[in-house]
Q: What sequence folds into this?
């Protein structure tokens, strides 16, 4: 038995591109090798420590509730005692911007931790994002309660002075780190370190300065070094580590290596004993700003709740709601979350004061308290809420409320929060940006000297699931040889790099607020955006430590609805809020049943639009289902069609049941009744695991966490066998069990809990209602909130016109910067396009046109002078054909405008210059044809009110017997048709078996389906066409949903040139097009992902 | 179109990085080649050449024949070209790129260029869009309109291009190389192949050129012989004299010296079409004649020595050591051409001040196997036997553990880690030995080698 030892200088992969092991691997390896503890220290950061902490915590949990399988053997091998006594020391390796050697600082107690995080904050805020500039003087300010290990550099000349200085600062808290790195002079160096340490009596501390857990990681560490240094392996030379020694070594090995200085080994135990800090001690306190002085938060919350409840329910609070409120408040009291609710309420109230629309989403919508406080919009009186989904005593996790704000004004809220709580107490949560297949192969490829085009081709390959090999066929498809050793190696290392953190970034809107100084809890760093700061921990870390988070998110639709309400007030005299929209409006549901939902929140995508006529929503809960059903979870779990069949009554509603000896036959009825026996919501899938597969609370909790982090770690597969086997054992059909699990997997990436779907359904209904009853207002608000949603302005305008809205062109004498509404002679609102729709008109210039229009402009020169417009704007306006009210069409206006001088005249000469342009003789320009106008409209406005390009080309197509979209839609099922139109959207959802293309012409839209096999043949045509001709068979569903099943595709984009010589109209694809705007499943909040089925980008 | 976009359409697309520098080098080579047609050649980026045919066309039998001749020469080099002959460079460019290429009769530029699309103006996109929007599609449409009205709207630069394309205003090209003082050449009906007879060709050429200089009372200082190969390559040999000269034999001797010192000797390939001799710089010839070669300057510099050795023995035969960026002692030093610039070389690793060097200067290649007795797992040898002599070790230091450069191995084939020790035997001799393979983790029976000797 060797002397006890602990590695106290262990870097993790949060020492970006230096450490080559996950924090959990470092900690668990040390534990396995028999260390008595580990000291995790990353470069100027504590970003990785929580993960090591969480890994050990989970291990201890497992000890109490041992799972089956491999883990059990491991636990037995380790033994409870060793796991319990293993000590995790967390700190940071301070790397200084001056010449000082690195110093590892481990806090001795809670105060030390606060000093350390403040020290790092100082360094972070001094530097730009991702950097930390520290000087040894900073440490001098903060050295108390920190245990310091000096890590000498190769050159020892400055070491004595550093040691002397540190010992002056913190006598007794300084160690000198000694390593035996096998550099040839280890023993001589150790002796020298002893000599240097002797005068200050600094104890030597044995360490291996570990960069990775296992020597096998050396090659990966070499690759990471190359990425960091931006060199190829062959040129990296001495920048690489000389050998594979910097791993976590066994105590026996360390004892042998330090035979000359056994005291350095013993010293690790003295050091460990000095540390009296663990992340458990980071108790967290909610801010008490919102509580009036002298009030108890719980009482204040109760008072507010009942006061608001009375306002919400003017006719008296329903019994059901009252009961809910009582129960919730009791639980809030037990868990002491009153401050949290008050803080959220405070933020929402501020938004209200500023007139910013907001709505809570996610599980918060399960709370009646949240509803009456105005945080969420799902009325508990009408819906069954599960408060336990939001907060539960068992889960011991802090509540997490996500609130959406208008996207154009969210920054005001964020800045307000900073202002109110101060930057020392409020910070955005970090997002750990990890290596993904594309980024990994790109960077690794460079290291192996692959050229950009090869790595780009590899990055484009569809990568298999985590850890599995890329099928060789895929690589061959790109024209590369999968047997090529360099390519094989690059792929091998890229796969090992997957999931490694790459850098920290700010979360989209997750805030952490604290009562005390936040920078004594965690370091704060500058974000890339000005005026933003964020903490080093991400939301999982926050969860693990039990800190409170508020998500301040942005939602475009709220901006749009706010604008609708403004216009309703201004033009129709209606004063409305989110809660005032009349419920159960038949006309609105009729419209949705027709699939008429362009611009409507959530259900405007092609898949949703096809679902609407099938699902036929007639009440609010139908919308909740509609929102949730067209998601990868239900689709991957094959739940959609069974649900539709059961809904239409063509299939009986049955509940799968276990074998009689295992439980009541209707055990699933309670779980699945609402959705006709088909699990559609996230919590149903969870409940299923608990009821049907008898998952314990702990197991269910693990499953839930695995679902949440599925994309990061891919741990969910561990549960597959468990769930399917247990369900099968209890007599369930194996197929049903498997599809339930498939669904859980789908939910992992993009699932909707019911409450979240309900919050979204609310916005679906409100936007539908506005669209149905006030189409002009809706279109106007939608255009003024761009960019948002699926559709380009051309489609929004077209849809508005189809709904009878008079859309009027941009004109210098009528338009403003924004699109606006005009009262037509017949009293109906018309939509006047604004200058924002015209390319090349700058906002400030555009606004000046409206401001200076005290009387109508009477000439081109008059406009240029009075609105002080520059030549570029004048040209853009002429290009947009905005001079019609001056009796000039586009061509004449351009001719006139281009004559104006480029630069603004000096003010003194402005008046004199005004009329100086001599009369010219008529240029006799040829008249502009309709086709040319349409093409030019598309070039400058991306839409044309004059005609659809296809209308101009119609004679050509008609001669070829090509049918218009509406004609094709009118054909019978199975008929052969040739249809053509401009391409709006191309999507390849789900498994990628089919490609969906939407074509448009002057008569309507036509949906094309291209099977994957056909696509490979017509890939070029599919990808390149702006104007596509498709031949195929019509397929018509009973609900009259029409698809043209393509058999042949012809690229007719060339015909667009026939509109005019020289102008090529630019048809803007919808923002949902996956090929021009690839929708990566990563990034953002998973629930935020707009696109329905998981998209595949196969560039 | 982006690359991703193109790949989406054609996944198997082969991609090559654009290399504008290489393109330009190619165009420069072609320009040099074209100097056989006229000395006034200019690049016309991105992919054009502009030849001033004034006064040269008759050598080929007229402009049309000259054009054919050039196109045929290009075709032999596997280039497809479009060539137009016109009154102004701009007109020729516009016709070659946007019109019917061919020969425009003198004075008729405007007739030929009027039907061209306004794209031929190669105006900025904004301007050409505006012209189209105005309904003006051909150069003729523009030509008929008041130039004041057009200038006010589309700028003076556009109008200047227009007038030049229409041939209303003349312009010159700036040739790549200034015209030589004097130039004589010999064209061969059959490609000239016989290098040994090259001086027989050059001697009369030089004599002819000297005759021309003599008439002007000048002597040449800088000379150039150009060899136009049938395959488009052009070799040029330049040499200078310290003072103006008209001595044919001396110049020939300089030529010979120069030709012998060439790194890649003059290669006729499939033969030379044209050999040309130019006097690039001429001065009034001074009285009397001084030796051509400069008298011995001080050459203390190694660089000079290297140059001279390289000139005599060939660049590739003069070498020096260079540090190689690696931990691997075998690969740490390599030979490089002594003439290569030292700025590109790595610095040698130096021990910290006061520390002894860890590695010897002298290495055995390959290392010598030795028999040792050492402690496991990683103790230094206590004694070892090398060349049948047993060395008892008095002192040892190490190991310096050097892991193999794994990326050099084929996957699956492992090389072993080496532990290096510095040893001193009882007689004070110092050795550098290593054990190949980590004990147990890499091999059960590691082998030992002597790799070097310390001085």
A:
């Amino acid at each position: 038995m060797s002397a006890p030892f602990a590695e106290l200088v262990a870097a993790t992969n949060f020492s970006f591109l230096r450490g080559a092991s996950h924090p959990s691997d470092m900690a668990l390896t040390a534990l396995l090798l028999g260390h008595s503890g580990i000291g995790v220290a990353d470069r100027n950061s504590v970003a990785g420590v929580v993960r090591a902490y969480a890994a050990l915590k989970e291990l201890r949990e497992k000890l109490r509730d041992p799972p089956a399988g491999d883990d059990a053997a491991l636990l037995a091998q380790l033994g409870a005692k060793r796991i319990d006594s293993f000590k995790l020391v967390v700190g940071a390796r301070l790397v200084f911007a001056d010449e000082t050697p690195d110093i590892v600082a481990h806090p001795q107690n809670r105060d030390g931790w606060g000093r350390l995080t403040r020290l790092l904050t100082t360094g972070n805020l001094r530097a730009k994002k991702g950097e930390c500039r520290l000087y040894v003087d900073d440490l001098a300010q903060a050295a108390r309660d920190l245990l310091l290990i000096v890590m000498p550099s190769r050159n020892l000349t400055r070491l004595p002075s550093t040691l002397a200085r540190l010992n002056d600062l913190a006598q007794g808290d300084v160690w000198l780190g000694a390593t035996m790195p096998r550099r040839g002079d280890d023993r001589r160096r150790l002796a020298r370190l002893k000599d240097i340490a002797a005068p200050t009596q600094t104890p030597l501390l044995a360490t291996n300065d570990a960069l990775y857990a296992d020597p096998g990681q050396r090659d990966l560490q070499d690759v990471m070094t190359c990425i960091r240094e931006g060199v190829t392996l062959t040129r990296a030379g001495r920048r690489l580590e000389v050998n594979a020694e910097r791993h976590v070594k066994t105590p026996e090995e360390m004892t042998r290596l330090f035979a000359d200085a056994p005291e350095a080994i013993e010293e690790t135990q003295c050091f460990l004993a000095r540390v009296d800090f663990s992340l458990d001690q980071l108790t967290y306190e909610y801010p008490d700003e919102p509580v009036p002085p002298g009030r108890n938060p719980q009482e204040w919350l109760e008072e507010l709740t009942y006061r608001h409840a009375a306002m919400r329910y003017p006719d008296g609070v329903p019994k059901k709601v009252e009961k809910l409120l009582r129960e919730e408040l009791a639980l809030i009291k037990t868990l002491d979350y009153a401050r949290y609710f008050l803080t959220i309420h405070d933020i929402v109230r501020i938004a209200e004061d500023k007139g910013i629309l907001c709505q809570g989403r996610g599980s918060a919508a399960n709370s009646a308290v949240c509803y009456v406080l105005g945080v969420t919009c799902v009325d508990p009186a009408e819906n069954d809420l599960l408060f336990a989904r939001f907060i539960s005593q068992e889960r011991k996790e802090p509540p997490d409320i996500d609130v959406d704000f208008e996207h154009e004004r969210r920054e005001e809220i964020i800045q307000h929060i900073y202002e109110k709580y101060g930057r020392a107490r409020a910070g955005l949560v970090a997002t750990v940006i990890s290596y993904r297949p594309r980024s990994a192969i790109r960077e690794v490829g460079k290291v192996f000297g692959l050229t950009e085009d090869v790595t780009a081709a590899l990055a484009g390959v569809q990568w298999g699931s985590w850890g599995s090999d890329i099928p060789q066929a895929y690589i061959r498809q790109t024209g590369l040889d999968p047997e090529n050793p360099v390519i094989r190696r690059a792929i091998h290392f890229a796969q090992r790099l997957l999931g490694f953190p790459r850098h920290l970034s700010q979360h989209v809107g997750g805030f952490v607020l604290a009562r005390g100084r936040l920078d004594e809890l965690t370091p704060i760093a500058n974000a890339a955006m000005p005026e933003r700061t964020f903490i080093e921990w991400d939301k999982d870390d926050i969860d693990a430590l039990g800190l409170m988070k508020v998500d301040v998110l942005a939602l475009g639709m709220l901006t749009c609805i706010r604008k609708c309400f403004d216009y309703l007030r201004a033009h129709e005299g209606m004063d409305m809020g989110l809660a005032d929209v009349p419920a159960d409006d038949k006309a609105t549901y009729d419209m949705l049943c027709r699939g008429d939902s362009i611009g409507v929140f959530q259900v405007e995508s092609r898949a949703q639009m096809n679902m609407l006529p099938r699902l036929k929503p007639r009440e609010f809960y139908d919308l909740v289902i509609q929102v949730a059903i067209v998601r990868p979870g239900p689709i991957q779990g094959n739940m959609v069609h069974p649900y539709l069949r059961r809904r239409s009554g063509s299939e009986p509603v049955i509940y799968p049941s276990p074998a009689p000896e295992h439980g009541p036959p209707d055990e699933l009825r309670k779980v699945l009744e609402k959705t006709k026996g088909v699990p559609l919501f996230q919590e149903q899938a969870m409940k299923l695991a608990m009821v049907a597969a008898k998952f314990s609370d702990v197991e269910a909790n693990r499953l839930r966490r695995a679902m949440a982090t599925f994309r990061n770690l891919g741990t969910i597969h561990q549960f597959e066998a468990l769930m399917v086997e247990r369900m099968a054992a209890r007599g369930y059909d194996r197929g049903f069990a498997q599809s339930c699990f498939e669904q859980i997997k789908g939910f992992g990436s993009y699932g909707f809990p019911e409450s979240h779907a309900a919050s979204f359904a609310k916005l679906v209904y409100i936007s539908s209602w506005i669209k149905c009853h006030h189409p002009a207002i809706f279109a106007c608000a939608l255009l003024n909130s761009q960019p948002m949603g699926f559709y380009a302005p051309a489609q929004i305008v077209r849809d508005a016109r189809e709904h009878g809205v008079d859309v009027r062109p941009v004109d210098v004498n009528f338009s403003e910067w924004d699109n606006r509404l005009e009262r037509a002679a017949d009293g109906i609102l018309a939509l006047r396009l604004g200058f924002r729709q015209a390319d090349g008109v700058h906002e400030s210039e555009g606004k000046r046109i409206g401001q200076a229009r005290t009387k109508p402009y009477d000439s081109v020169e008059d406009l240029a002078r009075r609105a002080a417009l520059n030549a570029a704007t004048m040209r853009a306006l002429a290009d947009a054909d905005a001079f019609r009210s001056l009796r000039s069409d586009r061509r004449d206006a351009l001719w006139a405008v281009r004559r104006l001088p480029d630069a603004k005249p000096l003010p003194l000469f402005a008046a004199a210059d005004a009329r100086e342009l001599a009369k010219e003789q008529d240029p006799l320009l040829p008249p502009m044809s309709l086709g040319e106008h349409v093409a030019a409209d598309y070039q400058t406005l991306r839409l044309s009110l004059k005609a659809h390009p296809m209308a101009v080309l119609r004679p050509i197509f008609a001669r070829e017997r090509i049918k218009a979209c509406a004609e094709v839609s009118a054909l019978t099922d199975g008929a052969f048709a040739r249809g053509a139109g401009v391409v709006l959207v191309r999507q390849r959802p789900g498994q990628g078996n089919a490609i969906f293309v939407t074509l448009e012409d002057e008569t309507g839209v036509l949906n094309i389906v291209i099977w994957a096999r056909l696509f490979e043949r017509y890939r070029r045509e599919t990808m390149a066409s702006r104007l596509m001709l498709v031949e195929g068979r019509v397929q018509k569903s009973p609900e009259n949903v029409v698809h043209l099943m393509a058999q042949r595709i012809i690229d007719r984009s060339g015909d667009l040139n026939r509109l005019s010589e020289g102008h090529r109209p630019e048809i803007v694809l919808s923002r949902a097009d996956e090929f021009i705007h690839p929708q990566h499943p990563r990034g953002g909040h998973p629930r935020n992902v707009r696109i329905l089925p998981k998209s595949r980008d196969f560039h | 179109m982006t690359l991703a976009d193109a790949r989406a359409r054609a996944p198997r697309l082969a991609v090559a990085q654009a290399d504008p520098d290489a393109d330009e080098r190619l165009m420069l080579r072609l320009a040099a080649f074209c100097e056989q047609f006229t000395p006034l050649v200019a690049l016309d980026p991105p992919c054009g050449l502009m030849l001033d045919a004034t006064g040269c066309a008759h050598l080929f039998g007229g402009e049309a024949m000259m054009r054919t001749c050039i196109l045929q020469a290009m075709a032999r080099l596997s280039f497809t070209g479009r060539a137009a002959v016109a009154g102004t460079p701009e007109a020729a460019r516009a016709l070659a790129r946007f019109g019917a290429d061919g020969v425009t009769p003198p004075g008729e530029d405007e007739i030929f260029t009027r039907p061209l699309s306004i794209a031929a103006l190669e105006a900025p996109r904004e301007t050409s869009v505006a012209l189209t929007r105005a309904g003006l599609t051909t150069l003729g449409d523009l030509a008929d309109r008041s130039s004041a009205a057009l200038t006010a709207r589309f700028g003076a630069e556009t109008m200047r291009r227009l007038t030049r394309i229409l041939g209303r205003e003349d312009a010159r090209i700036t040739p790549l190389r200034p015209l030589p003082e004097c130039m004589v050449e010999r064209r061969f009906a059959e490609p000239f192949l016989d290098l040994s007879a090259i001086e027989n060709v050059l001697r009369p050429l030089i004599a002819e050129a000297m005759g021309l200089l003599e008439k002007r009372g000048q002597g040449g200082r800088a000379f150039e012989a150009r060899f136009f190969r049938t395959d488009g390559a052009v070799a040029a040999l330049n040499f200078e004299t310290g003072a103006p000269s008209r001595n044919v034999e001396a110049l020939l001797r300089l030529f010979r010296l120069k030709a012998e010192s060439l790194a890649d000797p003059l290669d006729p390939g499939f033969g030379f079409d044209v050999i040309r001799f130019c006097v690039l710089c001429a001065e009034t010839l001074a009285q009397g004649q001084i030796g051509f070669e400069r008298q011995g300057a001080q050459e203390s510099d190694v660089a000079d020595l290297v140059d001279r050795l390289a000139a005599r023995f060939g660049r590739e035969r003069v070498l020096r050591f260079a540090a190689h960026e690696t931990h691997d002692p075998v690969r740490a030093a390599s030979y490089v051409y002594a003439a290569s610039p030292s700025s590109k070389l790595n610095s040698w690793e130096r021990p910290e001040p006061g520390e002894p060097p860890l590695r010897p200067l002298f290495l055995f290649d390959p290392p010598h196997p030795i028999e040792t007795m050492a402690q496991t797992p990683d103790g230094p040898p206590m004694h070892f036997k090398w060349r049948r002599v047993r060395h008892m070790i008095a002192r040892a230091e190490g190991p310096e553990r050097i892991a193999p450069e794994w990326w050099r191995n084929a996957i699956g084939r492992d090389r072993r880690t080496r532990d290096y020790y510095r040893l001193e035997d009882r007689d004070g001799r110092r050795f550098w030995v290593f054990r190949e393979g980590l004990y147990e983790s890499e091999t059960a029976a590691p082998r030992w080698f002597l790799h070097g000797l310390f001085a």
Notes: Residues 198-216 of chain B form the longest helix (19 residues). Chain B is about 30% helix and 25% strand. The CA atoms of residues 394 and 440 of chain B lie 27 Å apart.
